[in-house]
Design goal:
Length: about 220
């Protein structure tokens, strides 16, 4: 049914009059003023305090992040201290590592050591050969350039150069030579060996093939 203001106006006029009467009371005016004042203060206070609250939350997050980073740094520092202590405990043995695996084939050095062992054990060397290998390391043969960053261990590979030696002596001296070669600081592995009796000299001939290992920096 359509609204007819001429007939319905008198019904709503009573409601308007009732609201006016309530709003006209001093107590209602006081409550209304207090409510609107509280809403205004809350609204403006929120916009004034909001940046401060955001700053506090941001600072709290940064503090937590800094604590996490600090804990990680303390853990890394502890590991570095432990690694440094371990290194100091084996520092005197580090030169032995370079002697065991030199940065170059160093064929002449390896052959000289084997010759000295044979001489000390009273045996003689009738022949000695080696596979083709550079006498100097890549660092020694390369032209001098500004120092570059040290290469990691993943850029290094253990390689070997083959040595062949023919020794003549008694069984005891040859056995001692084999033990001495295996016990050398330079890592040398024996690939094969064969004994042949030398009836003229009443001794044994030992033909031994070995591999002298070294580290190659790629």
């Amino acid at each position: 049914m359509p609204f007819n203001y001429k007939t319905e106006l008198h019904r709503y006029r009573r409601y308007y009059q009732s609201i006016n009467e309530v709003a006209a009371k001093p107590q209602t005016r006081a409550y209304t003023t207090a409510i609107f004042s509280f809403l205004a203060v809350s609204l403006f206070g929120w916009y004034a305090i909001r940046p401060t609250i955001q700053t506090i939350l941001t600072l709290q997050k940064e503090i937590e992040d800094n604590r996490l980073v600090s804990a990680q740094m303390e853990e890394k520092i502890g590991k570095l201290i432990e690694a440094h202590a371990t290194y100091q405990s084996v520092e005197n043995d580090v030169p032995y590592v370079s002697q065991a695996l030199p940065p170059a084939p160093e064929v002449l050095t390896a052959l000289g050591q084997i010759r000295n062992i044979a001489h000390l054990r009273g045996a003689s060397i009738s022949a000695i050969t080696s596979s083709a290998a550079p006498l100097l390391s890549k660092e020694q043969t390369a032209p001098k350039t500004p120092a570059a960053a040290p290469k990691g261990i993943f850029n290094r590979k253990v390689k070997s150069v083959q040595l062949s030696v023919v020794l003549v002596g008694t069984f005891e001296s040859l056995a001692a030579i084999i033990e001495d070669i295996v016990s050398m600081r330079r890592i040398v592995t024996i690939e094969s060996m064969g004994f042949t009796p030398d009836r003229e000299m009443e001794q044994l001939k030992l033909v031994m093939r070995m591999n002298a290992h070294y580290i190659d920096s790629e």
